[in-house]
Amino acid sequence: MIKQHSFEPRVGKAQLFFGICYSLIVLISLMLALYVKLNEQGEPYMQYFMAVLFALLALKSFYLYQRVKKLIAAGQPAQAEFLSCESVRGITVVRARTEVAGYGPIEFEQRLAGVRLADEIKRVLAERKQDKLPCLIIGGNSRHPRAMLTIATDHGRLKPESLDL
């Protein structure tokens, strides 16, 4: 249930990368089609097919990237109750719970790169005597709201100011 309410913004960045790769494949397919056409080796139907196929994939990827950007921009800032923080195989998993108006409480998790982050987050929260974390509620008015923590890191180190409420 925790993963169902977690929002992962890196999916959008991955789709942007794939969209750029697919666009390059479209260009290569069109250059190959031009090469086949100029050398009179027949009609480049296969190259046209590949260009159309990868153009559709590129459009889908760019659409998903834009959708993720819009969801983040329309997100509602909130506070989440800190539940747990542990390191698992080089990744820090932070779990939290927040209340969504009209839906109820949701539990979600955020995955961050680095093993030391778990200790840093716990230490900073203990020093500040803080049990809340800043979060963003995505799609709060929809049937299936999601949330993400707005914890920032820099080269695997926690930015303590990102935990300010």
Descriptive notes:
The protein has 165 residues and is an alpha+beta fold. 43% of the residues lie in helices and 29% in strands. The strands form two sheets. A five-stranded antiparallel beta sheet has the order 3-2-1-4-5. The chain has a two-stranded antiparallel ribbon with strand order 6-7. The chain starts with 9 loop residues before the first helix and ends in a 7-residue tail after the last strand.
Q: Give the radius of gyration.
A: 22 Å
Helix-strand category: alpha+beta
Number of strands: 7
> What is the terminal separation in angstroms?
26 Å
Main β-sheet, spatial strand arrangement: 3-2-1-4-5
Mean pLDDT: 88
Low-confidence stretches: none
Taken from the alpha-carbon principal axes, the silhouette is: elongated
Strand and helix order: HHEEEHEEEE
Query: Can you summarize the main beta sheet?
Result: 5 strands, antiparallel
- Helix residue percentage: 40-55%
What's the helix count?
3
Helix and strand topology:
Layout (H helix, E strand, L loop, with lengths): L9 H29 L6 H29 L2 E13 L2 E10 L3 E10 L2 H13 L3 E7 L7 E4 L3 E2 L2 E2 L7
Antiparallel strand pairs: 1-2, 1-4, 2-3, 4-5, 6-7
Helix pairs in contact: 1-2
Output the keywords.
165 residues, two-stranded antiparallel sheet
Structure at a glance:
By secondary structure, the chain is an alpha+beta fold. The chain contains 3 helices and 7 strands, in the order ααβββαββββ.
